[in-house]
Design a protein that fits this description.
The complex is a heterodimer of chains A (289) and B (241). Chain A is mainly α and 289 residues long. Chain A contains eleven helices and two strands. In chain B, 46% of the residues are buried. The chains are: A mainly alpha (289), B alpha/beta (241).
Chain lengths: 289, 241
Amino acid sequence: MEIFIQQLVNSLSVASVTILIGIGITLIFGLAGIVNFAHGEFLMVGGMITWFLVTSGLNFFAALLGAMILVGALGFIAERGLFRFTLERPMNGFIMSIGMSVILQHVVIRIFNEVQKTIPDPIGKVWVIGGVDIIAMRGVVVALTAVVVAITYFGISRSRYGMALRASIADQDTAALMGIPVRRYVTGVFVYGSVLAGLGGALMIALFPITPFTGSVVIIRGFAVSLIGGLGNVGGAVGGGLLLGLVDGLSAGYGFPEWTDAYSLVVMIAILIVRPQGLFGGTLGPRST
Amino acid sequence: MAALEIAGLRKEFGGVIALAGVDISIESDKIVGIIGPNGSGKTTLFNVVAGVHKPTAGRVTWQGKDITGKSAYRIARAGLVRTFQQAMSYPGLSVRENVRIACEHGRRREHGSKQKWSSPEEILDFVGLRGLEDALAGSMPFGNLRRLGVAVALGANPILLLLDEPAAGLNDSETSELSQLILQFPKLGIGICLIDHDMYLMGTLCERLVVLNFGTKIAEGPPDLVLNDPKVAEVYLGGEI
């Protein structure tokens, strides 16, 4: 039982990173209609920035904030400078983003190197809860993710900005008539998703080593999560992330760890065959033009 | 001076000339109608004025400011609000939510402004949708969706409303209710510029008619004069009446 609870917490902390990347993709793909295949590299860059700042002597949580801000700025530049011009043709944006992911990998290798990076456990404590040892940092990762999920969920579903955002996506002309600056909302969603990727990268490097190629693994899981949950559906991304995280974590703990990545993809394929709109329903993806 | 000044407005789509240099002035305390056969450029005129399309040439001035080519939301926030032929609302949101979005994002409401509504509920009351605030927009019949479209446009707090075929698809009693509603707008400080094919409706509602044909203005004036103009009759009937 104690081992099970430890596995559960481990799985949840892994799932947290997956959820953060999945929410970013579900918002950017499902709401802004942009397929950014470099989103995984945004996370990797966030991890690398965190590593650089921490090894330069900065506190981890300050470094985390720095990674969020810098990756958000990267997202702003990418959206304003590149994706803005492919909004009418999402497929062009998708191809461009593949190129961007390769460029980002090699820029990181050029600046640092290709060796994997780790940072010391930022908290370095173990909590004993009900006789079970839990690494404190993993608990913090889960808690931070829960807060971000709650803010995002209520921001999208309840706030006037979330409502305006959903209106902009559903019908741009009517939204503009109501006085909603549609393009600004698209940029806003893209930057927000990028900030979450920065946070995901910072939390990831607090748990595992990161290499310049981490992004390509993460992006597949992120798309799996957002498709399982239904595009544009924040709650769905959380459900999908938990599902994948638990399948991964528990299968690694109890079964065949070498198959970990395969499980999640099998789950995704199975769900997309049975329910193409995702488990929880979502938008139909980028507007077709 | 007129609130909206359109000067030499031209719009080409590829090789097609939709507007071939149009000059129109519209006041914000009157009901002005724009008529013309299909393809004469009426809807394009609205789209270019409201910022949905950028003009090829010409100038649009709103309350003394050049708004040519400005983005649609800025023009809406400046109080120049266009409606669409299709129902303008979000089917998955309630009637109240649809109007509330427009209230939250449209032109800022100043104190002492002439209009009497401050909440989505009051607007819905005015357009005759009281009691349906919580209904899903997508569940409403067509006539009510049109009213909701007007309510959404009012939510954006317009000074001048551009109504694109508000009566299309409505039956006679719905059309006459709608025209009663439209007649009240000038008293509330909202000017109306509307497009419609219903000549009886246009003749009774409008103080002034502008006739477009092939992207040019061919006549302008009070309805009884314009509708009896031989040039206008020729455009519509291909000859004399």
